[in-house]
Amino acid sequence: MPELPEVETVKRTLKKLILNEKIKDIQVTWPKMIKFPDDVDEFKSLLIGQSFYDIQRRGKFLLFLLDEHTLVSHLRMEGRYGIFAQEDKPDKHTHVRFLFESGKELRYRDVRKFGTMHLFHKGQEELNLPLSQLGIEPFSEQFTVEKLNELLSKTNRKIKTALLDQTKIVGLGNIYVDEALFRAKLHPETRANQLTLDEVTRLHESIKKTLMEAVNMGGSSIKTYVNGQGEMGMFQQTLFVYGRQGKACKHCGEELVRSVVGGRGTHTCPKCQHPPVT
């Protein structure tokens, strides 16, 4: 699933391609993707004639800002956007097409059909699901060491599980939690409320640094992810632990291991990340 760096990269690339484009028609071949309003004809009628003037990101969600509405899009596992000429034939996995007056179009392609779209009147998107229960942004001014310590001190869950909770901190998924914990020298099974202030400080720094480096490298193309221009991310080439089980740790040379924490595949160095004392 695309995480914060991948969604941020898609946002940045699409902003170069669709701003000020006016929608003349919309074609939807998989109506189940349109979650709100639940009437596809209403969804289309509200958007036709609207123009894109900005694209923002909230956690793992893309926010397309139009004249009167905000389109909230979640890519889920394999969703992707691309710009095409209208005469180009779409493939069978293209499920939503935004046709522009310019002759170009924005296409949403999703092999698994898990992606979702919600359309709200401008200003209502943060008051309703799926955005209303999201937590703090890691790049925001509010994401301080003190705030992270406050969030973690209130839960006895394992630190990996706590960091994956999108109602607390948004944008972190399996890849970047594993990488941030490794950089902070913290074992993913450590209880969140048992971290010292020094450990929380290291974790805070590693979260921000890991995410920023990933954004600057266009995200991680582990499976099918590409940005809005069809380009792969490059951060996967610098990963320390994720997906590297059986290989040597880049820091100490120890063999990296894979386990399951909170139902998620987890990658650690047994020497750099000491397991908690039970």
TrEMBL record:
PROSITE patterns: FPG_CAT (PS51068), ZF_FPG_2 (PS51066)
Ranges of residues in domain Formamidopyrimidine-DNA glycosylase catalytic: 2-115
Catalytic activity: Hydrolysis of DNA containing ring-opened 7-methylguanine residues, releasing 2,6-diamino-4-hydroxy-5-(N-methyl)formamidopyrimidine; 2'-deoxyribonucleotide-(2'-deoxyribose 5'-phosphate)-2'-deoxyribonucleotide-DNA = a 3'-end 2'-deoxyribonucleotide-(2,3-dehydro-2,3-deoxyribose 5'-phosphate)-DNA + a 5'-end 5'-phospho-2'-deoxyribonucleoside-DNA + H(+)
Keyword Cell division: no
Matches recorded under InterPro entries: FPG_cat, FPG_Glyclase, H2TH_FPG, Znf_DNA_glyclase/AP_lyase, Znf_FPG/IleRS
UniProt KW keywords: DNA damage, DNA repair, DNA-binding, Glycosidase, Hydrolase, Lyase, Metal-binding, Multifunctional enzyme, Zinc, Zinc-finger
Pfam families documented for this protein: Fapy_DNA_glyco, H2TH, zf-FPG_IleRS
Protein name: Formamidopyrimidine-DNA glycosylase
Organism in which the protein naturally occurs: Evansella tamaricis
